């Protein structure tokens, strides 16, 4: 085998195995602050499935339900939280909460639970409001940048364009 070709095969194998082992098993959370209001916004991205019922999602703050897209769950959310939270499915694979937090400047643990088919998957994250970036298209898409960079650099390697 040509040496640079075997190196390319090794690179493809390693990235495939690493991609499998580091693929998230539950929803991924991306918190930020809205630009004008400085409200907390958490996007919860989950893998697409076509199982019914769902997808539905709910958000909890320190295990207290603050918002949900699940039918009839609104009766379980306190009136104060209903006024401060807005939970919606932005795309078929992204659930979003916009939350007007209290000005107590304390860190909280936020949990995103996604219901698809007959099971719930969840992820939690500790969030301190004053340490979050401002929401922008660039910050929300940064989690896709590594995949794109990997793809762009591996194509010339596999085609042998970067060989010595």
Strand count: 8
Low-confidence stretches: 7-12, 16-22
Tally of separate helices: 3
Mean pLDDT score, rounded?
76
Give the DSSP E fraction (strand runs of 2 or more residues): 25-35%
Q: What's the arrangement of strands in the largest beta sheet?
A: 1-2-6-5
- Choose one word for the global shape: globular
Helix and strand string, N-terminal first?
HEEEEHEEEEH
- Using only CA atoms, what is the Rg? 20 Å
What would you call the structural class?
Answer: alpha+beta
* Distance between the amino and carboxyl termini: 16 Å
The main pleated sheet reads as: 4 strands, antiparallel
- The percent of residues in helical segments reads 25-40%
Give structural notes.
The structure is a single chain. The longest helix is centred in the C-terminal third of the chain and has 23 residues, at 137-159. The chain is built from 3 helices and 8 strands, in the order αββββαββββα. The protein is of the alpha+beta class. It has helices spanning 3-21, 79-84, 137-159, and strands at residues 28-33, 40-45, 56-61, 64-68, 85-91, 94-99, 108-116, 119-127. The two termini are 16 Å apart. A 4-stranded antiparallel sheet has the order 1-2-6-5. Helices cover 29% and strands 33% of the residues. The protein is globular and about 60 Å long. The model is unreliable at 7-12 and 16-22 (pLDDT under 50). A hairpin with a 2-residue loop joins β7 and β8 (119-127).
């Amino acid at each position: 085998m040509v040496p640079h070709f075997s190196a390319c095969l090794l690179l493809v194998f390693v990235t495939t195995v690493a991609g499998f082992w580091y693929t998230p098993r539950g929803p991924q959370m991306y918190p930020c602050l809205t630009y004008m209001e400085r409200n907390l916004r958490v996007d919860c991205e989950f893998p697409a499935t076509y199982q019914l019922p769902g997808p539905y999602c709910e958000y909890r703050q320190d295990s207290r339900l603050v918002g949900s897209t699940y039918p009839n769950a609104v009766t379980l959310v306190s009136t104060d939280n209903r006024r401060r939270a807005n939970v919606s499915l932005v795309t078929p694979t992204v659930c979003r909460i916009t939350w007007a937090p209290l000005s107590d400047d304390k860190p909280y643990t936020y949990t995103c639970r996604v219901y698809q088919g007959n099971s719930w998957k969840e992820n939690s994250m500790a969030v301190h409001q004053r340490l979050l970036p401002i929401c922008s298209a660039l910050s929300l898409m940064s989690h896709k940048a590594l995949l794109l960079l990997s793809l762009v650099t591996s194509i010339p390697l596999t085609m042998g364009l970067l060989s010595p």
